[in-house]
## 1
Amino acid sequence: MDRTEFERIVDECLENLPDFFKQNIDNVHFVVEDYPTEEQLQKVKVLSKYNLLGLYEGIPLKYRNTGYGMHPVMPDKITLFQKNIESVSRSVEILKMKIREVLMHEIGHYFGMTEEEIRNAGY
C-alpha cells in the first residue's frame, strides 16, 4: 500500500476515535514511517526494527505539572510504522483494525497508561 493510502486510513481512524479522546488530545503530532530509527528502538529496548508497530514519545498527560506549557513545548509524537503494521495484516480490513489498535495503544501511553493497563483495556 502506498503511503498516501495508509495515511488516509490513519486519518480516518483518528476521526473515528471516541469523543473523550478527541477532546482531550492536545499538541500531538501523528507520523507514519516505514520503520523505527535506532534511537527509537533504544528508547523502548526493542532489538529488531521489524517488531515495533507504534511508538509514543513525549510527556504523558498525567505526568505534566502546572508549569507544562508555560514556555513553548514541542508536540508529543505518535509514530506508526507502516511496514511493520502491514506485515501483520493479511487484508485491508485487518490493516484498518490494526492501525486503530496501534493508535489506541499509543494514545493510552499519551494519557499515562502502562503497558499492562493498556493490554487490560483491550489494546
## 2
Amino acid sequence: MSFLGLTFLGLHDVFAWIMTLTNAAAGVWATAAHRKEQLRRRELWYLVIVAQVAVTIQVLLGVLVLQVDGLEVQQLHVVYGFVALAAVGILYSYRQQIMQWQYLLYGGGCLFLMGMGIRGMFLGTP
C-alpha cells in the first residue's frame, strides 16, 4: 500500500529523520534555555509538541509497516519505538512535578528521543 508514491516503509524511513531531527533541535534548545532565560520562548514548546507528536506518528507508521506491509524486523527495533513512545508519556507526566527543572527535563528527554531514533534507524533494522 502506498501514499503519494511512498510505501508505509518509505514513509516510516522519511519520518524517522523528521522525528530524530525535531527532537534534536528541541533537546538542544530546551537544554540551552535552562541556562539562558532569553531562550525560554513559547516557540520552544511548539517545537517540543511537534517533536513528540512526530514520535507518535513514527510508531504508528511502524505498526502499519508491520501489519499492512508484513515486513519482519528485529524485535529490538520494535522495542526502541515503544520505549520512545513511553518516554513521551513519562516526560509529560513529570512536567508539573519538577517545574523548576522543566527545561532540563525536556532537553534531556528530547535528546534521549533523538538517540532512540538514531538507534532505531541504524541498529534496529534487519
